[in-house]
Amino acid sequence: MKKIDLEDVSFLIPVRIDSKERFENINWIIEFIWKYFNTTIIVLEADETERFHNSLVSRKIFVKDHDRVFHRTKYINKMIRESTTDLIAVWDTDVFADYKQILKAVTILRQEKIEIVFPFDGRFFRVPQVIRTIYKETKDFNILVKNQEKFLLYYWHHFVGGAFIVNRKAYIESGMENENFYGWGPEDEERVKRREILGFKLKRVQGPMFHLEHPRNNSWFASKELEIQNRNELIKVCRMDKRTLLLYISSFKWCW
Questions:
Q1: What is the count of structural domains for the chain?
Q2: Nearest to residue 222, comparing CAs of 172, 193, 183?
Q3: Most distant CA atoms of the chain, gap in Å
Q4: Buried (b) or exposed (e) across 68-82, using 16+ Cβ within 10 A?
Q5: I need a labelling partner for 1 at 20 to 30 A (CA). Which of 68, 93, 140, 218 fits?
Q6: DSSP-H helix ranges across 2-154
Q7: Which pTM does this prediction carry?
Q8: Which stretches within the chain are classed as H helix?
């Protein structure tokens, strides 16, 4: 199959290798993207020691970080600032979507007055370990598709995490990622709510997304205090009107 031209897109993948499964998952995701697309893949690894290497990556950024909390929003923003393409796809280390869905999402952004597109319809399937093992042996994406009716859904049919593709300029102007979310938290929901308040047009592509299992070392609140802090940030933004939100965004020191 001839590769599809996505030269106007950069895939941004932040990572901390906290398990063997995470290491495998990110490599499989990169191989999958590279198999179908001519594109840019940027990986930012933040950790005490550099653990990740993959020759298919267009650019690897390593940040020496001794903090036990992985400040994901901050690192996504660093990649956004350093990317140069018109479109950016922010991608989790453990998620798959059909390449046709990715292409459809990019086409929408290219052709329509839409600022943010999710390359799936809200169905976010948990791929159990037994199917993950089969994928490991076969690297056949159809294994996930054929077994999806057996998988559990995260958040029913309304998930807004995993991956999204946006117009880079518009995303920067709307505050990028909210770095007040420190560590794991509801930044996915805030990202969408903030753009809705600002009047952004959001769209979904038909089809599910698949999440490969891994130990949840960095994928949970680091403490009760951080959980409360992050949840309060979401509530604060949700209560704002457009004018108040624009003033709040102007205070984001990471945007300027």
A1: 1
A2: 183
A3: 53
A4: eebbbbbbbbbbbee
A5: 93
A6: 20-36, 72-82, 99-111, 129-138, 142-146
A7: 0.93
A8: 20-36, 72-82, 99-111, 129-138, 142-146, 168-173, 187-197, 224-238, 242-250
Nearest to 87 by CA among 115, 64, 119: 115
| Local confidence band at 188 (pLDDT 50, 70, 90 cut-offs) | very high
In this prediction, residue 52 carries a pLDDT of 95
Distance (Å, rounded) from C-alpha 134 to C-alpha 138? 6
Range of the domain at 166: 4-255
Both structure tokens of 137: 């042996």
CA of 5: how far to CAs of 99, 169, 255, in Å? 12, 21, 30
Using CA atoms, how far apart are residues 202 and 5, in angstroms rounded to an integer? 23
Predicted confidence (pLDDT) at residue 218 exceeds the cutoff of 70: no
CB 45 within 8 A of CB 15: yes
Amino acid at 163: A
Average pLDDT, integer, range 150-173: 90
Tell me the C-alpha to C-alpha distance, in Å, between residue 253 and each of 176, 190, 248: 11, 18, 10
Residues 10-32 have pLDDT tens digits of 999 999 998 999 999 999 999 99
Domain containing residue 213: CATH number: 3.90.550.10
For 225-249, the pLDDT digits (tens) are 888 899 999 999 999 999 999 999 9
Exposed / middle / buried, residue 123 (Cβ in 10 Å: 0-12, 13-18, 19+) = buried
Q: What is the predicted pLDDT for the residue at 38?
A: 97
